[in-house]
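Model it.
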Amino acid sequence: MADELHTRLIEPEWAEQLEALERRCFPSIPPDELYNAAMLRNLAIDFPEGNYVVFAGDEPVAMGLGVRVDFDIDNYQHTWDDLFGKTEESGDNPAGEWYYGTDISVDPAYRRRGIGRDLYERRKQVCRDLNLRGIIAGGVIPGYAEHKHEMSAATYVEKVVAGELYDGTLSFQLENGFEARGVLAGYLEDPTTDSWASFIVWPNPDFVAH
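Modeled.
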């Protein structure tokens, strides 16, 4: 059955298919700001146990990706390039104490089926299994495009957190236990949101300090 969903750990040979999937999921972001096949191949080699791909039959339709990093959570301002630059390396640091969520992509045709929630839960389990401090990420805020002429990104995020506004990405992240700690300027080039993102954190309640 072509539409039957199953989830697997990432493998290098899927890199080209996953690159195409990401392009479908983020059409407003320039391709050079997204994962390419070489980066995905390296990620699958360096940290396969932390990255998941969802298939419908033989076709990848979603993925939840991330790497281990060292990160000063009290000084969180950064951009994608600050962490990963334009290199094709994965950016994974096996000694890193945080799981940095680099990508949640769900094909538009497969949204609202619980896939994103499942991928978040799998990421949380990676943190528990590897005793990581938690998940951090720069999160796109697509709904800000409709409000950027009337309020700052920080005000928009505050209103989403307060439940006064709904954002298709950030509201979902909040529902899944994430905290919005602030906003990131120039995080990823995206003219629709003037390149703003939220900074989100999921602290691992089971983390044990070394």
